[in-house]
Amino acid sequence: MNFSLKEIATATMVLFAVIDIIGSIPIIIGLREKVGHIQSEKASVVAGIIMIAFLFVGETILSLIGIDVYSFAVAGAFVLFFLAIEMVLGITLYKDDAPETASVVPLAFPLVAGAGTMTSILSLRAEYYVENIIVAIMVNILFVYIVLKSSKKIERKLGKSGLGVIRKIFGVILLAIAVKLFASNARNLF
């Protein structure tokens, strides 16, 4: 076992910034208003299963279509870069259709375990040990569960401006991580 507190902390922060569950509170509140009840436990467990499964089979899927992990990590760095730009500048580069129900589908996938999260998981796998990434995923799923359960309280306490500040801070962190990810994987392509 190669547990490293530094790797766990970094992977946790990367996933926390990409999942952006705090920034998703307005979406969660909107879903709750539309359909009444949100299944926090089910959404959290399914998101965790999807993320851990992709950690193990994502590389195999890539190799089947002829893409190496380094290429995927560089592509992931671009995705993270654009996600960070959205967070920092408050613009929307990608718009998804609003979900009709607050079941596992809009919450677990794609809100928590979406394309950015999957890209990040494989990008992290190129740099860190799997056991550290699994711990980071579990920490994030626990945090997602807590936020889903207490989203109304969080919204009241932070307010719109508080949520905006947190989103921008994590956007800058994510931007720095994207640059580091690109720099460390691009040289392995050649």
From TrEMBL:
Alphabetical list of Pfam families matching this protein: MarC
Domain of life: Bacteria
InterPro entries reported for this sequence: Multi_antbiot-R_MarC
GO cellular component: plasma membrane
Major location (coarse): membrane
Keywords noted in UniProt: Cell membrane, Membrane, Transmembrane, Transmembrane helix
UniProt subcellular location: Cell membrane
Transmembrane segments: 12-31, 43-66, 72-94, 101-122, 128-148, 169-186
Mode of membrane association: Multi-pass membrane protein
Family membership noted in the UniProt record: Belongs to the UPF0056 (MarC) family.
Protein name, per record: UPF0056 membrane protein
The organism of origin for this protein: Sinomicrobium weinanense
